[in-house]
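#structure-requests
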Amino acid sequence: MIELVTRTRNPWSIFDELESLQTDMNRWLEGRGMNWRRGVTAYPPINVWSSPEGLLMDIEMPGIDPKDVDISVLGDELTLKGKVNVKELNKGTAYLRRERTTGDFSRTLKLPFRVEAGAVKASYRNGVLRLSVPRAQEEKPRKIAVEA
């Protein structure tokens, strides 16, 4: 006697597979500063704070000479360019591990408002570049008095 076992496919399994795929994609894309093609974090890493007066930015750039950094503002875009110099090795030595970025870098940020380009201030201390980016006068919130 032959016993036939019929397997029926669960009609909901396709949705389980899609949900699993979505979970994996979300996990992969969660690092918003990640370059999805190479899995490399954007360089240099930047923290940005906003206030009614403008923005404050802390940009990590350890070991970079401030003279090798170029900051420019055009409209509502801030561009940061620079160079991380390659350290020359002594003869007979070789890298065992090399994780720090080297070479030229460029990063452009779209700002949430137009800025007063002539009033941007930059300071560099302990490997952190701090930028103070004031809003353009026409972008600042204004209080309107109501006449009675």
